[in-house]
Amino acid sequence: MRVNLKRNRTLLVDGPSSITLISGSASALGSKLREGCRVIVRNGKRLPVEAEEDSVLDLRLGEGASFSEIEGSAIPESWRRAFDRILAVQGYVSVMVMGGVDSGKTSFCIYLANIAVNEERRVAIIDGDVGQSEIGPPTTVSIARISKPIIDLFSLKAESMRFVGVTSPSRAPDKALDALKRLRDKSLEMNVNMLIINTDGWINGEGALEYRVETANIFSPDIIVAIQDGEELKHILDRIRDGMIIQVKPPRTVKRRSRDVRRALRELSYRKYLKDAKIQCYPLGWMRIEGLPPDKYDLIRRLREKAKMGRTETEDLSSFGEAYSKLKEMENMLVGLQDENEEFIGIGILCNIDPSRHIIRVYTPVKRRVHSIMVGQIKLDRHGCEILQDERVCGRAGA
Ligand SMILES: Nc1ncnc2c1ncn2[C@@H]1O[C@H](COP(=O)(O)OP(=O)(O)OP(=O)(O)O)[C@@H](O)[C@H]1O
Ligand SMILES: [Mg+2]
Q1: Are 214 and 96 in a shared domain?
Q2: Pocket test for ligand 1, best of 10, 78, 106 (most atoms within 8 A of CB)
Q3: Which of 118, 144, 157, 372 could in theory staple to 288 by disulfide, Cβ–Cβ 3.0 to 4.6 A?
């Protein structure tokens, strides 16, 4: 469908859809659209496309997609002032972006990165949101360099990823903080002069307060961008000692996503990272296994010791139903696989632990040598659907 977009007007395009600039001049989140190049808007996402000149766009709308037009820009003035202040900093600058759910955090990071890249800064971004991770699969945090303008973090290639194994940091704050520390260390080796830290929207409650303050302590950012309408972040900002705080407003036109849509987006992503997966068998005795639930720890340790000695525990287990059911409970758990340098190399689904053959079976696309397996706290079926309380709850991710 052809759409004429007049100068200084903005098209809000909801995915799943694609946009191609036919003529004129338009940009999205600070990234200029190139004539004839198709831009994809994923399901559950909205892209604001601003016309700098009268433009013609070709829109392709998938099922459930839509679009609308507004006068002027969808980017709040406070964002532009913040960009100016951040870019005025000479030399290295680290910027942490905070806000509640659907406040525009990721879009702010993308826009800032785009302007900085256009000014020839060397930019890296940390995707610190385990629930709606865009650079890596859900349950991970990651870091990537940005060398040209983007419209979506999804298109970036992670230079390092860490597996946290949960979709909300509230379920494993220490693990998430440890993963972020590793990425901070990585960023120091990357020769960048702008580090942007994107965060998740967990801001309410005592746990969130501590987590946010700790995150700020890890990075000691030069600038904290607080996206808030009122005083949603005040309790956190009051506790942060270092760094300049810049307050900005959430965009009025932001698209809110329900829990179901968020889950559906995660499931799409799991599927992407499980593509071409096969069952791989790893030796139980020689594989490091981390993140075991406390009630399984002793059992697995015993099985691994026996495996190392080449002994089976089949008989003991068959006469000991509880151990069997504990192993069964681990089936379908999401796992993260690491190489010998403790670098995350992919996700998998734990199929089973076979004490008689001394192996652990994992459904994964990873073909490289695996050194350690980190057990996550969520379960997935082979279609990438999250399993809650023994119930299959596949969102209609393809819709
Ligand atoms: N100014 C804007 N106009 C229209 N849509 C926007 C604007 N800013 C962001 N969006 C869209 O709104 C949705 C939510 O924005 P975004 O993902 O940036 O928020 P977030 O705070 O990072 O969300 P989350 O809490 O899920 O991490 C996205 O689909 C995004 O593309
Ligand atoms: Mg986000």
Answers
A1: yes
A2: 106
A3: 372
Does some domain include residue 355? yes
Contact 97, 108 (CB under 8 A): yes
| Assessment of whether the complete model's pTM goes beyond 0.90 | yes
Rg (CA), the chain: 23
**From ligand 2's centre to the CA of 130, what distance in Å?**
10
For residue 104 and ligand 1, the question of a CB distance below 6 A is answered with: yes
Ligand nearest to the CA of 107: 1
What is the Å distance from ligand 2's center to 201 Cα?
Answer: 7
Tokens, residue 243: 């760094």
Tell whether 107 and 166 lie within a shared domain. Answer: yes
Q: Same domain for 299 and 169?
A: no
Is the Cα dihedral 114, 115, 120, 126 positive or negative? negative
pLDDT digits (tens, 9 = 90+) for 371-398: 999 999 999 999 999 997 644 445 433 3
Kindly tell me the number of DSSP H helices and DSSP E strands found in the chain.
9, 24
Number of C-beta neighbours around residue 286 at 10 A: 11
Packed helices 105-118 and 77-87: angle between N→C axes, nearest 10 degrees: 50
Q: Please name the residues in contact with 311: beta carbons below 8 A apart, sequence gap of 6 or more.
A: none
Query: Would you say the CB of residue 105 lies under 6 angstroms from ligand 1?
Result: yes
110 Cα–ligand 1 center, Å: 10
Residues forming beta bridges with residue 95, ordered by sequence position: 196, 223
Q: Which of 20, 45, 71 is the last residue of a domain?
A: 71
Domain boundary among 71, 101, 119: 71
Residue type, 298: D
Indicate the pairing of strand 26-28 with strand 31-32: antiparallel
Which CATH number fits the domain that encloses residue 19?
Answer: 2.60.120.1030
Series of mean pLDDT values for 10-residue runs along the chain (399 residues) = 97 97 98 96 94 98 96 97 97 97 97 97 97 95 97 93 96 96 96 97 96 97 97 95 94 94 92 95 89 84 79 54 79 96 94 88 96 95 84 40
> Does the CB atom of residue 100 touch ligand 1 within 6 A?
no
The answer to whether residue 195 sits within a structural domain is yes
Considering its fold, how many domains does the chain have in total? 3
Name the residue with the closest Cα to ligand 1, atom 6: 254
Structure tokens at 209: 């307060």
- 260 is a domain residue: no
